[in-house]
């Protein structure tokens, strides 16, 4: 059955601005808005008490396929995204082979289409093999069927200033953006956690804030010099927020993201040596968390992006130094944003739809996503119950990996239903089976 | 983490974890200091008012960290001396005085001076210019050793780099406790194993 043929009538939802409305979804678009719409032939969804948000867009997801299918596949990552309320994810380039050619980004695009849960938009590598030595074929990826606009060596910093300058200049030809993983490699050799009083006591090698801030300062000046567009991935320090605020005031074309975990968690969690809390950049101090929240509230930080980084148990169930960096975050993102910045009064739901949908789609130049819920817009809709409260357990995870830092925590909110181009991917809080989406469901390694 | 994981019900002794802690080394060092100071009357005594200067690679030293917590718990006053590059970035929470000047520390007349080993790999990582400069500024050479009070104790957890952080004259002097530390280490670790496996005397 082709689900876009199903007519969905969402009754009595609240839009982000508080307006109550019905939404009629048909043919992949929002066909009607208003009160008391006719339900003839429609599947009715009672959305009383639920907020209707534009489908969420994650600018920073690691889907691990091709190459690391023991951690995640494009299908399972898409499912994790759908359960979290997302209708689109940008797939980071650090796969194996690396997404540094038109062939690989087209493969990722095709696997995303086949999975059918979300729009999978590939990110291209900046440098060949993420090696930081020579530019990858950025133009070929841009003109491929995957229409790549975001380029990133995420996991590694493009630390060579000349190469970074060239990359920033080059992508102007197709309105691209360089998404930088800001980490001076020399200042962070063998780094294990935030450098400060706690790392001094624990004797773990420190990851100093200046290693992030100095790269951001250099990059905003480079972006200004060549008149290009820079995106700063996973900002984690108070000083970095200050540098970006200064750059924006100066008129530099820079955007920035914060992750849910950096908005909620602090470095104190490292004390127990539970490697689920090991992430790069590392969890920082309470002052940094507060500065990130303030930066998100005043617009210095444009978006929230998950940095969803699945790892198998054997990469986390080990001593701290040997453990992999990263946390899964798609399934928990909206709840963590609610806990950290909505329930604390810093953001309202209009802000949430901006930082988790409209702005990431705009930065990534993905026109079909992040649109306001208006008649004629693609039917990408997330229904969310902000009054819910739930213990976040493994049963809330839909991806392959369980390295979530939130297990056993109580988090607010619940994603109730998600529509991707008019197709329901989640109903009653439950992920729909691949066969129910009407697409081809078989997992496939091309 | 292992001790609280619930995976095993065996007793666990930390025998030194990375650059974090080395509790039995601290126990044997405290035991050695007390024996030297109080001789046969040492049983049950603390280290109240004893001044201890720890010199060297504090940044990478689990010995320094464990000694800091144990010696101060027993009442000692700890000073740490190192090049700024070999201190952790933020020691504000540490109950220790911090100095970059070994000569000042020597002239303040510490009861105990504990020299830490400089590992070979630090020399190639820009922590200090070279081993000669380190030795000149932060080594316990013959001249500095001669300025210590005759009652001062010289300690080193071993193995020593003779001529780098400590001169042979200091290491082999009557003030040195290096060999006692080795011998006491056996007793302390036997005691730790015994107490862990049998429970302490008061409870049994």
From TrEMBL, chain A:
Zn(2+) 2 binds at residues 154, 181, 234. InterPro entries: DHOase, DHOase/Allantoinase_Hydrolase, DHOase_cat, Dihydroorotase_CS, Metal-dep_hydrolase_composite, Metal_Hydrolase. It comes from the Bacteria. SUPFAM superfamilies: Composite domain of metallo-dependent hydrolases, Metallo-dependent hydrolases. The active site is at residue 307. Binds 2 Zn(2+) ions per subunit. Substrate binds at residues 62-64, 94, 280, 311. It holds the Pfam family DHOase. Pathway: Pyrimidine metabolism; UMP biosynthesis via de novo pathway; (S)-dihydroorotate from bicarbonate: step 3/3. One of its GO terms (molecular function) is dihydroorotase activity. Zn(2+) 1 binds at residues 60, 62, 154, 307. Keywords: Hydrolase, Metal-binding, Pyrimidine biosynthesis, Zinc. It catalyses: (S)-dihydroorotate + H2O = N-carbamoyl-L-aspartate + H(+). Coiled coil: none annotated. Its EC number is 3.5.2.3. Its cofactor is Zn(2+). Residues 51-237 form the Dihydroorotase catalytic domain. HAMAP family: PyrC_classI_B. Belongs to the metallo-dependent hydrolases superfamily. DHOase family. Class I DHOase subfamily. Catalyzes the reversible cyclization of carbamoyl aspartate to dihydroorotate. This is Dihydroorotase. It comes from Cryobacterium breve. The gene is pyrC.
